[in-house]
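FORM 7B: Structural annotation worksheet

SECTION A. Query
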Amino acid sequence: MKRKRRLLLLGIVVLIGSHLGIPVSGSLEGMSAAASPDCFLPLEDGRCLPPPVRADQAPRPAARLMAAPTPRRPGVVVKRKPSAPPGAFRAALAAAGFPEAEALALPRWWRVPVPPGQDPEAVATRLRQRPDVEIAEVEREVRITFNPNDPYYGFQWNLPKIRAPQAWDLVTGTSSVWIAIVDTGVDYNHPDLASSRLWLGWDYVNGDNDPMDDNGHGTHVAGIAGANTNNGQGVAGVCWGCDLLAVKVLDYDGSGWDSDVADGIWYAAYWGVAFGKRTIINLSLGGPYDSSVIRDAVSYAQSHGALVVAAAGNQGTNTPFYPAAYPGVIGVSATDSSDGRAWFSNYGSYVDIAAPGVSILSTFPAPLTPPGYEPYAWINGTSMAAPHIAGVAGLVWSVWCRASAETVQNILLSTATDLGDPGWDPYFGYGLVNAEAAVRWRPAVTPVPPPGPYRQYLPLVSAACP
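SECTION B. Predicted structure
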């Protein structure tokens, strides 16, 4: 019997940019030796993906109707063994009856569409038996899960709660840091998002570089992380000096596939290295099933210096939720305006920190806003909590530009305002994120005897950050 496992997507963001013509270092993984000089990101099957582009420089694409796309056939994601060359692997799959197999951006991973009338589980079992296949799993569906409230302009209680205004007295972010929102897309025409800070990444749903949000969730998450601020209109974002990168992996109804999510994670990390960005990847999505392809993508991103932030889930249970439960990922639970755990927020050993997630006002696509209302909405969810953490991480990384992702994570956790039981607990992790304390954090300095009659002064920051 065919089974479909579902991942719940808890947040989305889309950002845009323009073709920079920046060559990619040959040390980056996934490059093909036979690739054309014009191919910035060659895949193992010979296809190419272009780089992200700045929104204010990108040509405006033709309008696309917000209509239901042709459903994609179920697939199996397979990881080829290192001993199997890509070309030979592709030929072997075609000979085995899978001529439509395509490489993912994530090295060694391929998607094999299931032929009509065949059972996906049976196809996966058959592929696992091949000597050139390391892993074969049925592709899982992912969906967003958020609770819309009042789609109109209001107050943002959440930013004072995490002491963001006090942090802004010290730092508002830098373009050397970008926050990638891997989700449903972003309305790049929104007045609170359109700017040179917004980058247009790849749209894995439609196969182009127009990640326009046709759902609304991604635009909302993007606004929380880094909406234009101090511009006399709309709302404020946490890290409003940081760049944003939009990568669309979910369609108009908030559904998609784990292979696309994995590619979106890989894409953000890859181009972060290529463009010299300190990369934060926001994943307001997930589910109770461990996905090998997403796990590999998260590991790739972490090994390339990215900080991964993920929502803890909205089921109100302590069941492990992925990707938040993967090692090194910051798992984020949600709180209300009284510092209590949001009624829907998951809890458990994988929760590291908490952030506001109830009645959060942020940006919303104008085409999806009811007539007579401003393009803003209140939404509940751990989807909304996660970009608060991503934004504060951006502020910290703007101060400590030479810090590792692990150090930034440790700063966030060690400066959080303790809630619940003293110390770590499964509902709030180490507590509510505290933006001011995080950007004011300084490393402990061991006192040393002054040399001779001179007194030694140690700088708090060794050099100016870009």
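SECTION C. Observations
The chain is about 20% helix and 20% strand. Confidence is low (pLDDT under 50) at residues 1-37, 147-154, 453-463.

SECTION D. Sign-off
Analyst initials: ____
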